[in-house]
Specification:
- By secondary structure, the chain is an all-alpha fold.
- 70% of the residues lie in helices and 2% in strands.
- The chain has a two-stranded antiparallel ribbon with strand order 1-2.
- Helix 2 runs parallel beside helix 4, helix 4 (86-104) runs antiparallel to helix 5 (111-139) and helix 5 (111-139) packs across helix 7.
- The longest helix has 29 residues, at 111-139.
């Protein structure tokens, strides 16, 4: 039996959709894939809303960007499907789901357990993002990229910042989880 979404849940989903969009504009320009705060907000969505609603909030962000709202790090529109970095947006949805599912049933919402969930979600984001980047670059838009440049530009240069965001998200979620539950 499907559970109906409450007004509170819809509002929180909308909030995290907006935060993810804002996070796209808070960026540090580096080659190939810009470093943004989207990881922070997509992980927080999963941690605070749960896997299903966290993924819904990030999926709504993706849909809004694909229909033309300029809310992605480099614009928006249906053509964004052909950008190699779109795989990271798909990864945000899956990562938020995984992070949320890993923490939904925890009896003790500890920093360590939440951090492990965040790191697992981050691995999902990078896995999906890098595979999509490689496939689109090499087989769709004919701008080949080798495995070493892919690893360097799409992982090594950006993962240190995202690891820090995972730690920050774990600390924030530990403090905010009781607040959100009592809304």
């Amino acid at each position: 039996m499907k559970k109906k979404i409450t007004t509170k849940e819809m509002t929180l989903c909308a909030l995290f959709t907006v935060l993810t969009a804002v996070g796209a504009f808070l960026k540090v320009p580096i080659p190939v894939v810009p470093f943004t705060l989207q990881i922070l907000f997509t992980m927080m969505a999963g941690l605070l809303l749960g896997g299903r609603l966290g993924a819904c909030s990030v999926a709504l962000y993706a849909v809004l960007g694909l229909i033309g709202l300029p809310i992605f790090a480099e614009g928006g529109g249906f053509w964004y499907l052909l950008k190699p970095s779109f795989g990271y947006i798909i990864g945000f949805i899956a990562g938020s789901y995984v992070t949320g599912r890993m923490t939904e049933g925890l009896k003790q919402f500890t920093f360590g357990k939440v951090l492990i969930a965040n790191l697992t979600g981050l691995a999902v984001v990078y896995g999906m993002g890098m595979v999509y980047y490689y496939l689109i670059s090499n087989f769709v838009i004919d701008t080949p990229i080798g495995l070493w440049p892919l690893f360097l530009y799409c992982f090594l240069l950006v993962v240190p910042g995202d690891l820090c965001l995972c730690v920050l998200a774990a600390g924030l979620a530990k403090r905010l989880k009781p607040v959100v539950a009592n809304l």
